[in-house]
Every structure is written in C-alpha cells, then in structure tokens.
Amino acid sequence: MASLTTYTDEARIALDTLAGRAAGLMSPSLRIGVTGLSRAGKTVFITAFVHNLLHGGRLPLFDAQNSGRISKAFLEHQPDDAVPRFQYEDHIAALVESRVWPESTRAISELRLTVEFESASAWNRLLSRGRLSFDIVDYPGEWLLDLPLLLKDFETFSREALEMSALPGRADLSKEWRSQNRDCDPNQPADEMTARKLFEAFSSYLRACKSDQRALSTLPPGRFLMPGELEGSPALTFAPLDVQPGAKAKPGSLHAMMERRYEAYKTHVIRPFFREHIARLDRQIVLIDAMQAMNAGTEAVTDLERALTEILSCFRQGRGNLLTGLFSHRIDRILVAATKADHIHHESHDRLQAIVRRLADRAIARADFSGATVDVLAMAAVRATREGTVKQGREALPVIIGTPLKGETIAGDTFDGETETAIFPGDLPEKPGLIFQQPKPGKDGGDPPAEESLRFVRFRPPRLEKTAEGITLSLPHIRLDRALQFLVGDHLA
C-alpha cells in the first residue's frame, strides 16, 4: 500500500499517528471504518450500533454487553473538528418515529461513542482504565474505489474506462458518451464547453449504471457520483479520452487539459482522503447489498465481486508491532457483511453467507496473506420483518412478514407503504457459484420462470415492541451482536 502514497504522505501519516498514540495514553480509542456502496446500509448500521449500546439492546453474542460488564455508554465530542458529525439523533428519529430509512451517506462523517466497562480479566483490570472510545468513521464506498487510480496514469484510466463501458451490462448506457468520445479529437485545442459535455455524458452513464435496474458497483471516479463540496470544480470536470497508447499530450490540447485535471483529482481529492481517513483506521466493516445485485442479474453480481476485491485491496491491513504501531495504523480485523438478511427466511441465511464468502474469496485471500483477520456475515442491523408460515395446500411455506415500501411491486401488485403482508421470498441457490450464471430463458425464449428468478422487495423500518410494563425495546436486528463482537469484543475482554 506504500505505493499509493508519496514520501510526504508517509511522513504526515507517521506524525499524525504518533500524536494520536500519545493522546490515546490518556484517552484510549479504537477507530472503526464503516463503508459500503450506496444503499448497503452504512447509516443504519452505525445508528443501530450506537442505539443498542446506549439503550442496553438485546445483544446475546456481544460478550461485554451480555455479561453486564458495560456499565455506561455515552456520546462524546469527536476528535476531528473539521469532519462533519454523524447525525445520530436525526437518523434514530427517522427510524423510530417516522419509520423511514435515513438518508444515504453522501460524504464522510464521524461519531465518538465511549463505553465504561469492567474487563473479564483480573490482569486487564489492573492495566486498563476500563474506558474506551469508538471513533466511528462513515464514508462512501464509491470514494474508496478511487484509491486504485493513484497507481494509474490518465492513459490507463481512459483505456480501462472505455473497455468497461463496452461490457454487455453497460454498452447501452454508455452509448451517448462513447459516441461523443469518437467524435472528439484529443489533440484539438482545449475547450471548456467540450470538456463539460464529455464530463456530463460520462457522469450520466455512471449514474445510469448505479440505478436499481443495473445495480453496478465499479464506477470510478467516485466523486462524480457524490461530488460533495467539489461539485463544478475543474478537478471534477474531466472524462476519459480515446488516446493512442504512448501518445504524449500536446500543450494546450484537450488531452492535456483532461490529463491535468485527472492528476489534480488524484492530488487534491484522493490522496488527502487516504492520508487523513483510510490510513488512520484500526478496524473496518464493509457492507454489501448482495440482494440488490442478485435482483439486477449476473452482470451486477460479477461487478460487485470486482468492486469488493478492489475495496479490500485498498486498506492498510495486517498486524503491526509495538514499534511500527507508533507511526502507522494497520487494520487487523475486516468484516464483510451482507445486509438485509431480514429480506429472506433464516433457512437461507447460511446460503447468503456462502454467497458473500464466494464474492469476497479473492480479496479475503489477499487480506489473510498480510495477517489481517477477515470474516463474513449475513446480518440486518435493523430487522424490518418477522417470520411465519403460510399453508399452501398440504405444504407449509416459510414466509417473512413486514410492510413493503410504497411503490414496491410483486407479481404486478404495487404496495402502498402502509399494508403489512406475508411474502415468500424464494430460496437462494444452494451452490453460491450459480449466482454468476445467466438464468436459462423461458420456453418461449423470454424471461425465466418466476420461480427461477429471485426478487426481493424493500420494507419499512419496524414498529418498536414494548414490554408488559410499557418499556420500549431497542431496535431489533439479525446478528448485529456477532458483528460487534468481531469488531470490538477483544478490546473489551
């Protein structure tokens, strides 16, 4: 990963880490990165994480909580004043009071949650202050996919972008941009209007790839989809060009303009993001929406695998020692979690987990080689459904019961967002590799039969249950406790 940084970057990282380690002697902390591609549930995960610790949620597999060793959990001021705060209060109000999902992550944000606890070890009780802060960093996975660009020049970036745009799942969406590219001479004089038209056509193609119907994941540059405060700047107004291999950009040409802006994007956007945020992480969870990809088809599943491999290869993963740990952070635990496990019956959870393992195989092998511990999980940070059975003739079908979001459809029926219904979601394939295969067409050459096509719908957040005494329970979940145990349990042991 050092190849992604300059010597100046490494010096800054070392100084920042050393200062952080010194502060940690008085106020120990663990920095946890939460990422994933859009709609994977990053905001919901963090909100549920914090809510369950603040309110003593039901977390039987989270040992420190289940054994009663956490005496107190509370929010504190975050250490980075220049980073927007994760608005936990707004998000929990949306989930609990309005029963709507919080808005997706659009930029980086941070929140500090501090716990006071008693160690399970007598020796640790002597050495530990019994207080630990979790600095939770929320950032878009789309931005993380930019990091490999640091290793690519403009020619390589352009060639790969053009090759990707011609793939079967993208060719129709990129038609307009590729047409403009063919009509454009890279050696023509630099012109702002031409640059803008190419950028707009290219970014429109990327946005179309991200739609629910395609659900594609590998779409760099990430800031073209989530520009934030840089929208409209020259560093975000460029596009790949069909340049000849080895061709040098002529001074004053469109090629030279695009190449300069691409390099500015790497210098002023990607490098600071890596140096100031990614290089400071201790633990990481990567959330993926495998359901959406399977809904969209084989091209989306294959692209999700490609994106996940690139994401995991970007972390500084592995185990440090006492000396190197003073000057650099290493991510020693990475959790890859498929969200929305509540959209299927628990009988399919093991299959979903196997699918995640298959998607992450290559990337996990790379992480394991460097000494990081990697795990996969099927979970729902907030469980929006419950399970039941419905009799169909003599057969009892396992179903999930919940309130589909307004506009969701099944077999031609459109839901109003208020009506609760029982849904048979279908079975995931027993062999994970089958999700990478194109479904066989129907007898008439059309779409595959409904029973062979997996379709998942989205549900509204649940109404919180109350005890007989009228006490409102915390947000329900599936395996959030196991996720917390893996990410932070050893630091509370």
Automatic annotation (TrEMBL):
It comes from the Bacteria. Residues 428-452 are annotated as: Disordered. This is YcjX family protein. It comes from Nitratireductor kimnyeongensis.
